[in-house]
Amino acid sequence: MSSTQQVFAAGPPVSFQGSRWPRGYSQLHGADLRWAIAFVLPYAAVFFVFVVYPFGYALWMAGRPALYAELIADRSYLTAVVNTLLFVGIGVNVKMFLALLLSGFFLRPRWWIKASLAVYVLPWLIAAAQAGVSFHWMLQQEGLVNGVFSALFGFDGLMWFNDRWLGLGWNIAVYIWKWMPFWTLIFIAARMRVPRDIYDSAEVDGAIGIRRFVHVSFPLLANLYLLCTLLSTLWAIGDFTTVYLVSGGGPASSTDVLATLGFHYAFDLANPALGIAAAMSALPVLIPIVILLMRKLQTSEVEL
Predict the structure, then answer these.
(1) Got the DSSP string for 207-242?
(2) Which of 105, 108, 157, 283 is least surrounded, with the fewest CB atoms within 10 Å of its CB?
(3) What pLDDT is attached to residue 115?
(4) Does the pLDDT of residue 177 top 80, yes or no?
């Protein structure tokens, strides 16, 4: 058995299963029951008013099959579905993989790397609305990006939002730029929890550089990586701010995703039922992701 395997087998698995209360504590009577109800009722009322009722009303509005037939007949909807798949598939996976790689880089013991981490997290600290508006204006024909191209290369640059693929590419790039620091910090915290002995033993066995990442770091972080990817996917499917403020869905709604297309239907076309139906059409994808995420979160034991 190699020294790395010895370290893995050295201790018992790390358990996150909490202790359970005795059965007597789950049975409330008299004044205890009344106080429990009094404390729970306000939260239940807020949950019903702001979650159950709006969601139920949305399901009722979007419950007519004719709405979905109208959606499928609209070419803009099919374009938005493709854009959503590209936005989520490319944006989430590139963001998570780069965040995992950079989390190892920022753990190196050099002062300039520590200082650069403080700068690296700034995009995450900026409000999403301000970031989206800033990129929208920087990418205009007379904006900062074209000004840099003109100064360095002597040509006027491009009209970034007059082409579907350029606009969609910038939506994805801004999304990655905005949210990658957050997930990098998550992975940095996870890496710091890994015992140093594991890496030392792997180094003795010759696992250094890319081999250490493939055979040691990634297997230890794989469960967390999957959970973060699922959660990020849920958030990205409903991302409205990035697309709406960066490209605005243009040109001619060719960069819309489901969230922005639903807004367009509901407010620009004054058809809220169709807008809600466009958003609800993502449920067949969202529900399996939520179920898988809940099952992974219910794992009671994690072995290092």
Answers:
(1) --THHHIIIIIHHHHHHHHHHHHHHHHHHHHT--HH
(2) 108
(3) 92
(4) yes
Among candidate residues 87, 138, 132, the one with its CA nearest the CA of residue 255: 87
C-alpha 156: how far from its chain's center? 35
Per-residue DSSP letter, 250: -
Q: How many Å apart are CA 113 and CA 108, to the nearest integer?
A: 7
Instruction: State the DSSP code for 270.
Output: S
DSSP 49: I
Q: In terms of Cα–Cα distance, which of 257, 248, 300 is closest to 85?
A: 257
Give mean pLDDT, residues 287-291: 92
Q: Helix (H, G, I), strand (E, B), or coil: what is residue 246?
A: helix
Q: How far is CA 54 from CA 48, 125, 166, in A?
A: 9, 30, 36
What CATH number is given for 68-302 in this structure? Answer: 1.10.3720.10
Helices (H) and strands (E) in the chain, counts: 17, 2
The 10s digit of each residue's pLDDT in 190-221 is 999 888 788 777 777 777 778 878 878 888 89
Peptide bond into 251 cis (omega under 30): yes
Contact 76, 251 (CB under 8 A): no
Q: What is the pTM of this model?
A: 0.83
Helix (H, G, I), strand (E, B) or coil at 185: helix
Is residue 218 within 8 Å of residue 150, measured between CB atoms?
no
Say how many C-beta atoms besides its own lie within 10 A of residue 151's C-beta: 8
H or E element in which residue 18 lies: none
CB atoms within 10 A of CB 143: 16
pLDDT, tens digit (0-9, with 9 covering 90-100), for 109-144: 889 998 999 999 999 999 999 999 999 999 998 889
Measured distance CA(64)–CA(230) in Å, rounded: 30
pLDDT tens digits, residue range 93-108? 999 999 999 999 998 8
